[in-house]
Amino acid sequence: MKRLLLSALITLFTFSAMADELYNALFNVALKESVSSAKETLAEWEQKGPKDGDYYSAYFHLHMQQALAYGLKTSKYMPLYAADKHVQFKDSLGGISHYMYSEITIADSTQLDSAITWVKKGIEKFPNRLDLRLALPNTFRFLDDAGRAYIYMEEIVNWAIANPDSAWIWTSDEPVKKDDAPVEEYLQDFFSNCNSSTWHKDLAIKFVDLGLRLAPNDPMFWNDKAGLRIEAGDYQGALEIMEEAHKKNPDNKYISTNIERLKELMKE
User: Fold this and answer.
1) Are 66 and 96 in contact (CB under 8 A)?
2) In this structure, are residues 41 and 26 in contact, taking their beta carbons and an 8 Å threshold?
3) What is the pTM of this model?
4) 75 vs 103, 141, 198, CA distance in Å?
5) CB under 8 A, 24+ apart: contacts of 200-208
6) pLDDT at 230 over 60
7) What's the rounded Cα separation, in Å, for the pair 20 and 2?
8) pLDDT tens, 26-54?
């Protein structure tokens, strides 16, 4: 019995080592070289490697590599994905006349559909693989489709709320530390991108409310929500939001300070 167990352990170790080798060969070498090189590595994976979450991620990346095209563009509008990386051009009065950024477009919609199909298959088999789930909203962030990005982030939040005892895992099935709050961080990023973008501000509040569904006591989301009311000129509404946040976080100095600052602002 002990001998059989040892044999099984050796087999599992070899299998895992092969998976790591194929993973590194694909993601660190083949995908950076060419599509044909990636396909050769995936053909080997089909024969020797495990059909784990990384397997589905590999096919997703292969199809995405063929689906997208990149180029330089100038526009008076700033897309979602360029909120943090763009160049501003100003007019004679100092206002922003237009933006320049690296544009991402769909070169092959069939490849995009295949990428989405592969990652959805992976999510179905490994629902707590957060890297697979985040691949979808990130894809549509880069395609400047904030509406679809929101739909997929909402699916992540709904699953997390429905499965509170399930821990997220990442590539190579590495556990995600709960204190890292990765989903909250991504929601915060989407909020910031939408609020900074010139044509997605209407979705900023939806990402904040989604964050509060997942983390009702998170002071950052409450602050974001109040900030949107301040931008709209509704100081009283902002104060009510911050006071609600204070009830949930009575010892949070960040919230208390912001309430005092807001009250001072309302006196002016």
Assistant:
1) no
2) yes
3) 0.79
4) 10, 18, 11
5) 200/80, 200/146, 203/146, 203/147, 203/150, 204/228, 206/150, 207/150, 207/153
6) yes
7) 27
8) 665 555 667 787 788 788 888 877 788 98
